[in-house]
Write a structure and sequence with these properties.
Shape: globular
CATH topology: Glutaredoxin
CATH class: Alpha Beta
Helix content: 40-55%
Structural class: alpha+beta
CATH architecture: 3-Layer(aba) Sandwich
Oligomer: single chain
Order of helices and strands: HHEEHEHHHHHEEHH
Strand order of the largest sheet: 1-5-4-2-3
Length: 232
């Protein structure tokens, strides 16, 4: 059963949360640029190959995976750009999320995310939770506070708690703890393209440039998938 999370030391963990997503601040400085210049896909500079490549969960589609946290203000700033990427993705690509778990606060939000996903609530709650944390400065001091938020958006509180303690959710949390280091992620938001490439706003030169770069990498990966196998 899910143990009731203790009252979080908000000030200390807030500092940890800021540090965990601080690396992305330098890349967000150009967010106000309306027309981003073209960005080249340069391995080791604008994007970073993941060695070894990691498995995806998107089947035959090219996976665009955002590693994020509701506790990270830069992820909140990035969300409109994430929506832009999703809206422009071709049919052969798929956008998904993986919450990072860098401290107890982030784990609580990750548990809430996976529970909401399992219960079909994400369409109603994803942006709303970013707004609650970073626009409205709502305090989430325990997992019960997170349950209360989702209950306001249609969840049955008791069912939400039961689902949050299920094997399904524990397995997804374990996968996040395992995969985030394998991707080489040390800050959020970070995008992983098909388990092979890691990109951030900092590496691309800003979030508008990141949007363009992600689409270039998606096209590149799709072309590679379609290329005939090399003869042995």
């Amino acid at each position: 059963m899910l143990k009731h999370l203790p009252q979080l030391l908000v000030a200390a963990l807030l500092a940890l949360s800021v540090n965990a997503c601080a690396q992305e601040h330098s890349g967000a400085a150009t967010d106000a640029v309306e027309a981003a210049p073209a960005v080249e896909a340069v391995a080791g500079k604008t994007y970073f190959p993941i060695d070894p490549p990691q498995p995806t969960a998107s089947g035959d589609k090219v996976e665009v995976l955002e590693v994020f946290s509701y506790a990270c203000i830069h992820c909140a700033h990035f969300q409109p750009y994430a929506d832009e990427i999703k809206a422009k993705l071709p049919a052969y690509a798929e956008y998904s999320y993986m919450p990072a778990i860098f401290n107890p606060t982030w784990e609580a939000f990750a548990r809430g995310f996976y529970t909401a996903q399992s219960m079909g609530l994400l369409d109603k709650t994803h942006q709303a939770l970013f707004d609650a944390v970073h626009r409205d400065h709502r305090q989430f001091r325990s997992f019960d506070d997170i349950v209360a938020f989702y209950a306001e958006h249609g969840a049955d509180a008791e069912k939400f708690k039961q689902t949050a303690s299920s094997f399904e959710i524990e397995s997804k949390l374990a996968r996040s703890r395992s995969m985030v280091p394998k991707y080489g992620v040390d800050g959020t938001p970070t995008l992983i393209i098909n388990g092979k490439y890691r990109v951030t706003g900092a590496s691309a030169g800003g979030y508008p440039q990141l949007v363009a770069l992600v689409h270039k990498l998606v096209e590149m990966e799709h072309a590679e998938k379609k290329a005939p196998s090399k003869a042995k």
